[in-house]
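Whiteboard transcription, Tuesday session. T.W. wrote the structure tokens on the left side:
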């Protein structure tokens, strides 16, 4: 009888699925979960570690993440939200939907300073830039002023600040440089804007298809073309006024606080196994240590002469007004 019971237990064990360790739902943005993005590799690595089921749910871009969370409220399915940035963290925390992460962060990149946010942890960072097609643009803009006042014959694709963190980043960049004259700057730039897309993926896709000579992206974007495509055709314009910084973060929802996998994922996020995937899959700079040096291509990228970054509290207080100014200037 004992032999039979042991045999039955063994048979049942074979039927237990690989995700017996539980399930974790992570909300993020579309380019993160794309087949060429970091999501698939990170999913495989974390599931191996946790013996669980990691499920990514994606929306167009980072601001859309916050919009979705606000709509879902306490009924959200998200355990972890990955893809907000520091421009949104104060507003996100104010929703009351996030819990303290409780993770002791390792040493972060010096560019991130002394990290103190109890709700959100960084996983990468970068600097917004205008990427141009060097086969079509022989004299790229050397400043934000050049971009704003340049010829309407050369078009740029940008993202919507109501749904996209790069789109919001451009609004903050122009506001940082132009201040009270931001409305006029947008009016001057408007004829150069081919279209405004909901997220980064659509904008960059239009650019690489040749629909426009320029696109709003990151100083790190040319690294993709050089490493993955062995091409130096697409370049970042270095602006004399400096570049606006983006720090992307993840946080645990109050729903996720009851799921041990949520904290485990944030701890995993800051390990070399996760960080190694970021540079050549998300094409951003890693927030924490990687297991090996970055490809030398990254060292040759545009290094901002000055870095702009508004506080999360200032953005929360002014985001609606600054977007309304953008809408009015562009006649949208």
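and on the right, the sequence the group agreed on:
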């Amino acid at each position: 009888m004992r032999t039979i019971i042991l045999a039955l237990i063994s048979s049942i064990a074979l039927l237990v699925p690989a995700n017996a360790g539980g399930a974790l739902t992570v909300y993020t943005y579309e380019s993160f979960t794309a087949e060429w993005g970091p999501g698939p590799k990170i999913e495989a690595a974390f599931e191996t570690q946790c013996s669980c089921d990691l499920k990514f749910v994606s929306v167009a871009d980072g601001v859309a993440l916050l919009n979705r969370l606000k709509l879902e409220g306490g009924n959200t399915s998200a355990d972890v939200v990955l893809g907000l940035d520091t421009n949104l963290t104060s507003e996100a925390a104010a929703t009351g939907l996030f819990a303290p992460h409780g993770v002791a962060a390792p040493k972060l990149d010096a560019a991130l300073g002394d990290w103190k946010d109890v709700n959100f942890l960084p996983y990468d960072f970068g600097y917004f830039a205008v990427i141009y097609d060097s086969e079509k643009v022989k004299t790229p803009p050397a400043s934000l002023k050049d971009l704003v006042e340049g010829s309407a014959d050369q078009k740029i694709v940008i993202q919507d600040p109501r749904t996209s963190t790069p789109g919001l980043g451009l609004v903050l960049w122009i506001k940082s440089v132009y201040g009270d004259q931001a409305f006029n700057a947008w009016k001057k730039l408007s004829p150069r804007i081919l279209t405004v897309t909901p997220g980064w993926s659509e904008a960059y896709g239009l650019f690489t298809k040749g629909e426009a000579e320029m696109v709003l992206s990151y100083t790190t974007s040319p690294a993709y073309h050089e490493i993955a495509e062995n091409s130096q055709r697409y370049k970042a314009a270095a602006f004399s006024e400096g570049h606006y910084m983006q720090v992307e973060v993840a946080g645990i929802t109050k729903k996720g606080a009851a799921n041990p996998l949520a904290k485990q994922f944030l701890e995993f996020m800051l390990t070399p196994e996760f960080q190694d995937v970021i540079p050549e899959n998300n094409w951003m700079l890693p927030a924490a240590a990687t297991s090996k040096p970055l490809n030398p291509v990254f060292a040759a990228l545009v290094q901002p002469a000055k870095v702009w970054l508004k506080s999360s509290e200032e953005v929360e207080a002014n985001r609606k007004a600054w977007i309304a100014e953008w809408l009015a200037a562009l006649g949208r």
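Someone added at the bottom: Residues 312-330 form the longest helix (19 residues).
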